Amino acid sequence: MSKLIMGIESSCDETACAIVKDGREVLSNIIYSQIDVHKEYGGVVPELASRLHIEKISYVVDMALEKAKVTFDDIDAISVTYGPGLVGALLCGVSYAKSLAYALNKPLVKVHHIKGHIAGNYLTYPDLKPPFLCLVVSGGHSHIIEVRDYNQYNILAKTRDDAAGEAFDKIGRVLNIPYPGGATIDKISYQGDKKAIEFPRVTFDGSFDFSFSGVKTAVINYIHRILKFCPELDKKGYEEVILNEVLNGNGVKQHKKDITKADILASFTESVTSILCDNTLKLAKEKGYKQIVLAGGVACNSHLRNKFDLECKKLGIDIRYPEPIYCTDNAAMIASMGYYLYNESCFADLNLNAVPYIDIENS
Q: Which of 36, 111, 342, 354 to pair with 15, CA 20 to 30 A apart?
C-alpha cells in the first residue's frame, strides 16, 4: 500500500515542505527561499533566518498540501530535518513537525540533513538503489560516503577544514560576487582559462580526506598580490582601483600576462573540482564501486558534473547526480529519506530536539 510522507526542511535559509509518495514520486515541493533577504548581508544571518522560518512555515505546509491535493488525514508520517544545521533554524522545523505529529497522531521521523541530500537522487532516478558511493558536497559538508543500504552509511573521507561550498562562497565575497556566489562563479568560469593559475590541490598520505582552506587562502592572497602590479598608483588608492579592474573582467598585467576575474575563478574551480573528482574515483576503485552519485548544493556545479561525466566514462563507472532542485536544500529529499526510515520503523518521540552538529553515522 502506498505511503505519503510529509517532509519539513528548515536547516538553513530555506523554509520548505513537500509531500512524497513511496519515497520516489514528488506530489509537491514548496520552497520559500530567504536568499533575497540574506544577500544584503553577504551570507546567512542565523537570527534573521529563524524569524523568517517562523513566519513562513505554516504557509509552505498549507501550500504543499494544496499542491499535492491531499489533506492531513492522507499523510502517513511527518519527517523533519533535525540536524546538522543552524540550531535556531532547525528548531523552527522540529517544533512545528512535533506539533503536527502530536495534533494529528501521526508518526514522527527525524532525518539527518545529509541523508536527505543523498535521497535527492532517488527522486531523480527511480531505478537507483544502494549500494553506491556518494560524494556529498555543499556549503557545510564535503564527504565521500559509502551508502550500503537506505539507512546504512560509512564515511570514507571528509574535509579537515573548510567545505568546498564554503570556499566558493568566500572567494565570491572577495570578488564582490553577490551571495550566493556558486551559480555566478560557475558561469563566469567558462570565460576564463582554467590553466592560467596553478592553485594548490591538497592531498594526504594514506587518506582521501579533503582540505579547501589552503586553496581558498591561496586565491585570496593571489588577488591581493595582483593588486600591487600597478606602480603608477599610490598605496592609498591602488587597491580599490585595481580590484575594480579585476571585478570588471579587464585584464590586469601580471608577469607579462593578462589575468582576469574569469581566469581566477576558472583556475580556482579547476583546483576544487579536480580534487573532489580524483579522490572520489580513487576510493571507488579501491572499494570496487561501479556507481557514483553526487549530492548537495555544489553538485549543481556544471564543471564538477562535466569532469565526473568525462572521467567516469573512461573508467566504465555509472555516474548520477540529482536535478538541480534536489541538490539545494528542499523538503522533497527529506520526505524521500523519511519514507525509508518509516519502513524501518525508525520513529522519533516528542522529545526530539535540534542537533546542530552530528555525523551521519551517529544519526
A: 342
Alpha helices in 106-254 (DSSP H): 113-124, 164-174, 182-189, 213-227, 238-247
Domains held by the chain: number: 2
Q: Are residues 8 and 149 in the same domain?
A: no
Torsion of CA 239, 241, 247, 249, to 10 degrees: -130
Q: What pLDDT does 232 receive? A: 43
Q: Please give the grid coordinates belonging to residue 175.
A: 570578488
The residue range of the domain holding 65 is: 4-128+325-362
CATH code for the domain of 145? 3.30.420.40
Residues paired with 137 in a beta bridge: 142
Query: Hey, which bits of 97-150 come out as E strands?
Result: 108-112, 132-137, 142-149
CA distance 11 to 334: 11
> Does residue 259 come out as left (phi exceeding 0), alpha (psi in the -120 to 50 range) or beta?
beta
The partner residues of 8 in beta bridges, in order of sequence, read 17, 80
What's the distance, Cα to Cα, between the start and end of the chain in Å? 28
DSSP conformation letters of 321-363? ---GGGTSS-SHHHHHHHHHHHHTT--B-TT----SS--GGG-
- One domain, residues 221 and 234: yes
CA distance 252 to 106: 62
Q: Tell me: the pLDDT tens digits for 153-207?
A: 999 999 999 999 999 999 998 888 888 889 999 999 999 999 999 999 999 989 9
| 261 lies in the same domain as 272 | yes
CB 172 within 8 A of CB 184: yes
